[in-house]
Every structure is written in structure tokens, then in C-alpha cells.
Amino acid sequence: MITQEPTRILAIRHGETAWNVDTRIQGHLNIPLNDTGHWQAERLGQALAGEEIAAIYASDLSRAHETALYVGRATGVAVMPELGLRERGFGDFEGKTFAEIEIALPDQAERWRKRDPSFAPAGGESLLQVQERVLATVDRLAKQHPGELIVMVGHGGVMDVLYRAATRLDLQAARTWLLGNTAVNRLLWTPEGLSLVGWSDTQHLADALLDESST
């Protein structure tokens, strides 16, 4: 029986945006990187320049695509847009802050806060729908790269799904892990599923701060 070689994955959340700072829900809205986000993405590209990357896939939303382009320029690998790596669609929640949603839609805010897997804001996606979309996308892309290293640039909601899948945690488990902007998360994919190699590596950002403080 022939078994497929594992695919190594670098899963990365986009750089910071102004709406991240404001805790405003972005969802499928196209919000660009802010100055900090561009700086983070540039440092990310520098950190990954020596990796032998076979392919870079990124959400088509600008904040993720822009982040991926920094990696593409540093490695010479083209960035391929992938709708399956988009953030969760939040429908009517998009453009609002967490506090605004709790005031305007308290019942829906409670279901969201409790991570009700079947709850979807009007016009948006449920956690179950996002999980199905993201994992199907990862399976499809990883199967194309046996024995290779690929990059997937997405969003906080995408990273959350991947962590839960790799650690076998259900959708309602309380989050105790970080989802930092441009943090490098290392995963291994086989036909049996994902496994966790390393999570939330932000050394490229810490090194930059040390470099600046020493000049």
C-alpha cells in the first residue's frame, strides 16, 4: 500500500489592521494592513526567506493577500489566491465592535460568546460552516504537495479552526492559545488529518525590536 508523504504547512494570520486595534469585526470586508501590519509582514518575509517553500496560498482579502506578498517577494514564490482561506463571514456583525454588538444584539452576542457551533449572524457563517470550509480547503491544497512545505496565509478564525483540528479540540472549547498577527504556526498534514508541530512563533518580531533597541 502506497502512503502519501506528509505535507508541512506554515499557517499564518495576516498582519495588523486598524480594525484589529479597534476590535471591529472585519469578516469578509476588505480592510488593508496598517503601518504596523506592513512592518510585521516585512519581518515575516525576511524570516521565511531561507525556507524551501513550494507554494504560497492566501485568502483573497487584502489584509491576508498583502501579507502573503511580502513572503512571496522574499522567497520568489508566487502567491495564489484561495477563497477557502477567507475569514469567517460575519454578515450583519461586520463593521461593528464587540461592544456595539452586545448592546444592539444581546441575544445573538450571547450565542456568539458561548461559541454556539450552529449560530450564524444574519448573512454570515456558523462555526460549523467555517470549520467545514477551512478543513476541506486545507485537505485539497495539502494533497497537491506531498513531501513539500507550503504557506497558507489567512485570518484569526482560520487559525483557530486549524489549531482545534490539529489538537482534536471541539469548537466550543475555551480558547487558551494565541492568534497573533503574522505568528508562524507549523502543522503537519497527512490523509489522517493535521498535527501540531509548533504554534505562535513570533521570534521575527522580537528580533526586530531587539535590533532597533540596540542601534
Number of domains: 1
| CATH-level-4 superfamily name | Phosphoglycerate mutase-like
Q: What is the 3D shape?
A: globular
- Beta-strand share of residues: 15-25%
Biggest sheet details: 6 strands, mixed
The SSE order reads EHHEHEHHHEHEEH
Q: What is the helix tally? A: 8
Percent of residues in helices comes to: 40-55%
Q: Could you give the order of strands across the largest sheet?
A: 3-2-4-1-5-6
Query: How many whole angstroms does the radius of gyration measure?
Result: 17 Å
User: Pairing-aware structural class of the strands and helices?
Assistant: alpha/beta
Query: What is the rounded distance between the termini?
Result: 58 Å
Which parts are unreliable, with pLDDT below 50 for 5 consecutive residues or more? none
Description of the molecule:
This protein is of the alpha/beta class and 215 residues long. It has a single domain, classed as Phosphoglycerate mutase-like (Rossmann fold, 3-Layer(aba) Sandwich). The protein has helices at residues 18-21, 35-48, 62-75, 98-104, 106-113, 127-142, 156-167, 203-213, and strands at residues 7-13, 53-58, 79-81, 149-154, 184-190, 193-201. The protein has a 6-stranded mixed β-sheet, sandwiched between helices. Helix 2 packs parallel to helix 3 and helix 6 (127-142) crosses helix 7 (156-167). The longest helix has 16 residues, at 127-142. The protein is globular and about 50 Å long. The termini are far apart. The mean pLDDT is 95.
